[in-house]
Amino acid sequence: MATKSKLIPFGILNLENDQLHIFYGNSNKTSDFVCDAFEWWWDLVKEENPEVEEIVIFADNGPENNSHRTQYLSRLVRFSQSKGLKIHGVYYPPYHSKYNPIERRWSSLENHWSGTLLNTVSTVLKWTETMTWKAMSPVVNLLDKFYPKGVRLGKSEMTDINPYIIRNPKLPKWDMTVVPESVVS
Description:
- The chain is built from five helices and seven strands, in the order E-E-H-E-H-E-H-H-E-H-E-E.
- It has helices at residues 31-45, 70-83, 102-113, 121-129, 155-161; strands at 8-13, 20-25, 54-59, 86-91, 139-143, 165-167, 175-178.
- Strands 3-4-7-6 form a four-stranded mixed beta sheet.
């Protein structure tokens, strides 16, 4: 039997222009995988968006990008500081991801595959590139790196990053902003 590869998709949809970016990982969907995809995506689009000072991320509060996931928050703080951007995380409550616009793109991708035998990494990447949504094909990339599960920060490390995280007092689990400069004086 041939060795089977595992690919994990992660998508970023720009709501301003409907451009879809799909990143595939070949190990585990972790906070580091998600944040590496964010960083790669921003490096691809930042020249087109020099005026952008804040990125809003609509997410489903899954285990890898949870608003209280320590590794995710740490990586967002580093990303925010290195790029000088605010990152506003807005989370859908459980069972409401159907309202997230990117979810319709996943069903479109599945329909596009239409039973195609996706037996190699190259086939998956090439076939994904041929999908269209609103007359545009997605930008497709492979994050060819091992992402270990279970990476967490301790309380002392969280103390260092908490000054960069602002939570909405009325919706602290569902609405938070990461800022490049500490809000504690």
